[in-house]
Amino acid sequence: MKLVSFVSGGQERLGLVRGDDIVDTLRAGGDPALFASALAFIRAGDPARKAAQAMLANPLKHALIPAKDAVLAAPLRPNTILCSGSNYKDHNAEKANTPISGKEPEFFVKTADCVVGPNEPIAFDERFSKKIDCEVELAIVIGKAGRFIEASRALEHVFGYTIVNDVTARDRQVRRTPEGMTWYELGSGKAFDSGAPLGPCIVTADEIDDPQKLKLQSRINGELRQSSSTSNMIWTCAELIHFFSRNFTLRPGMVIITGTPAGTAWSSDKELGGKGVHQPGLVPATRYCLPGDVVECEVKKIGTLRNPVAEASEISKTGSAQVAAE
């Protein structure tokens, strides 16, 4: 099952993907208590899922919207996004590393304020950063609450999966001493407006047998920048759930993002410790993202998350991120 949020009458509504159409769950007669949002749906559990399956099996014609005509929003607006950095072997090989890189998960947080949806712009503002980088990442959506979750049972707590572009201000993230020591400032460099494009849908866990066997790619202006597999993670999805559940009670609707593979613009930035490692088949970055660029993040079985980069001042003028994206 694939869940989306779409805009209708100025409001975000929950939809279900059915082939080339989206089922409007409220027009299909869904109980608003279950279908008000993805979060309400996740919290409702089996009753909501059974009702959704019935809608998909026998859709009402007036509840169908052609997917090509729908304006999608972020499928979920999580209050908490728990993030793991330096979780791919090939990414660690292309950049300056801290003493803990690759030895334990790097732990930082993004918030709902960072989230934008498909086709909404990533804001570029020189007053904040001149080195905006993009990273395709598999995201885990928690469905069942738990604390101190054992890795062997961790996937039982997963509702589904989506895609996050972990947008990063490298000139705020990477700090280096004259002696060559590197450390990361993961607050300012990671958490900011439009720093977490999310979507285009949530795919329920039953449709992804093994989250460690998913191909993921990113393209900028059509050029293939990243291409890898979740099998190259240092810590698996289950291990990350275990790791983060030591600190927090994981609750339905929380999101965990799982790191990015090689191919970032950072790799070509020797000033910040990029090692210039060329990955066969990829187009090496020659610069960071600028207004006018289009970033596409793709994960097998989930889809493609597309976002343009735009001047922050132009986004503000429109009063609507969606208009700016078009």
What count of helical segments does DSSP give?
8
Globally, the shape reads: globular
What CATH first level of the largest domain would be assigned?
Alpha Beta
Instruction: Please tell me the overall pLDDT.
Output: 94
Radius of gyration: 19 Å
**CATH fold-level assignment of the largest domain:** Fumarylacetoacetate hydrolase, domain 2
Q: Any idea what the CATH architecture of the largest domain is? A: Alpha-Beta Complex
Percent strand equals: 25-35%
Order of helices and strands: EEEHHHEEEHEEEEEEEHEEEEEHEEEHH
Structure class: alpha+beta
Q: For the record, what is the CATH homologous superfamily label of the largest domain?
A: Fumarylacetoacetase-like, C-terminal domain
Give the helices and strands, then pairings.
Elements: E1 2-8, E2 11-18, E3 21-24, H1 32-35, H2 38-44, H3 46-57, E4 64-66, E5 72-73, E6 80-85, H4 89-92, E7 106-111, E8 115-116, E9 122-124, E10 132-133, E11 136-142, E12 158-165, E13 168-169, H5 170-173, E14 174-176, E15 182-184, E16 196-204, E17 215-220, E18 223-229, H6 237-245, E19 255-257, E20 294-299, E21 303-311, H7 312-318, H8 321-325
Parallel strand pairs: 6-19, 8-16, 9-21
Antiparallel strand pairs: 1-2, 1-5, 1-16, 2-3, 3-4, 6-7, 10-13, 11-12, 11-19, 12-16, 14-15, 17-18, 17-20, 20-21
